[in-house]
Amino acid sequence: MKRKKSKSFLKTAACATGLVCAFSALSVFAGCSQNGASQENYIEISCGTGVNDADKPYDELYWRNDPVASGADPGVMWVSEEQDAENGGWYYAYVTDVRQIGNVVYSAFCYRSKDLSSWEVAGAADGYALVSASDDWTISNFWAPECIYDETSGKYYLYYSAQRSEVARGDAAPATNYSELQLAVAVSDRPQGPFSLVRGGTDFNGEEIANAPRFDIAGHFNLSKPFAAIDASVFKDDDGALYLTFAKHEDSSGRNRGIWGMKLLDPVTPDFSTLTCLTMAGYKSVKNFVPGVLTDDTFPAGGEAFTADSVLNEGNFLLKKNGKYYLTYSTHGYADKSYCVMQAVADSPLGAYEKFDSGKGNPLVSAMASGIGYMAGTGHHSVTAAGDELFSVYAYHGNPEKYGDANMRILGADRIEIAEIDGKQALVCNGPTASPQYKPQAVSGYENLAKKAKITVKNGVGAEYLNDGLLTVSASVKEREYRSSGATEITLTFDSPVKARSVMIYNSSSYDYAFTKADRIEFRFASPLTANGKEYKFGAIKNPAFPAEYADTEAGVITQGAAVIADFDEIEITEIKIYLSEKYETTDKFGETLDDIGVAEIVVLGKSGS
Questions:
Q1: Lowest CB count within 10 Å: 151, 294, 339, 562, which one?
Q2: What are the structural domains, with CATH classification, of the chain?
């Protein structure tokens, strides 16, 4: 949706003396700034609020986690135009969804998006990317598809789990015989498919690729007990090496439902000699497991107990950041309201991994731990890059009040940052959110200039948190927000002129400290602006309000990660001042005065330089 043009701040044009603005129906007011430091006249700048009259985010700058695309277990991949001239320039998302026509099974429903929020159906087979032939060993339970691109072959490989054909089709369909779940891999020339099961030809070792599971743990190690596996995910390291991680599913073996991993020699050839247990449900780490050694009596030993887990670790995804390997996984079960994403860290892709403590990095994405009631079951994610920014793409329950019925799940996305927590570098998700957020710079062309600004405050503590990139949604960073002592003034100063396009002032995560509006947002222009025959050095936006729909005044609850938004035509500036004084709550439950105002983050969207 396009935002309606501002009625007063319409356009800018360059002239010999600098940037000059032409206005229509101007509102101009004279007087000093609120701190009395200047006697200059100000020109009032009208602004948008991030959404249009239909309550849709202004899509050039923002997105919101609205119910656009449904599906569970999203695997997301960016395909560049350099990589694929015909199909590149899109994010592709593959989700768990199955349709059967006769003996042919269609699965891995596929969407694509330019911005991780506006999704369209892309799968080549009526929306599905994977087509399974009637004689494939894969029969049912096609779960958690993820895709990679192999530069050597120029092919796309889709990984997923499926039920083996040895189980009768009627028995397998209800998903009761989990012992027969195996990992599978399919191949296609295009990211949207159609993908077909890899069968025929030879693998890296020169061995024939049969119509059978390629990653059969029980078969390779001659186990008499099953080794059910799901949630295949492939990670490519900086040196080009491939690693497969997967979840041990419920079966009759009695083994812990943790995360396992091994190296791949190519996209279809496992190196079983590297097989190792990466995590165990209910434990912070795995102790003394010997890679490549597995018998019916081999049970990994857990380290310190970890009560934040349930009986399962699943939905694994591996990424590397700043030399560390982060293994994310989900726990508590997909139909549970507390289904969430957790994280562990290691110095190498196959561990040893150690889980972050609760409240000190874990959980990574959790509606319940964040105190959010309007979303539920935010689990099983994948991480993708948008330029230099990382995003978690997860699924959440379509109805948070009926989360036990998890058949309808919706795709959501939020930023991931890196922050030091308890002396460790941890992933922090700025979500889950249900309010407008700013799009990736790689999509909108606008960066967050606040990260480059020098910030000073009139009073209070925690000014360093105003541009640290964290929204305080995560339980691990709830206290990382600025707290004033009464009414306050926040100044952002830039070393050189910048072109500002939007200001977002993120509210406190606590209703006790939440503000109702900004009294004023003032701008110091890089060069005077001329209107009605006069020059103005300053502009101001008056009383931009915090959206009423994100403040439940009866319950005393603020929507996490929501902001005052003011967007406008580009203006070249050197300084921004923000004034805050009005709050929702002025006394606590004991009648004591609550003067403090909390601000989680300030974002200034714009462009550096003239």
A1: 151
A2: 11-60+441-608 (2.60.120.260), 65-434 (2.115.10.20)
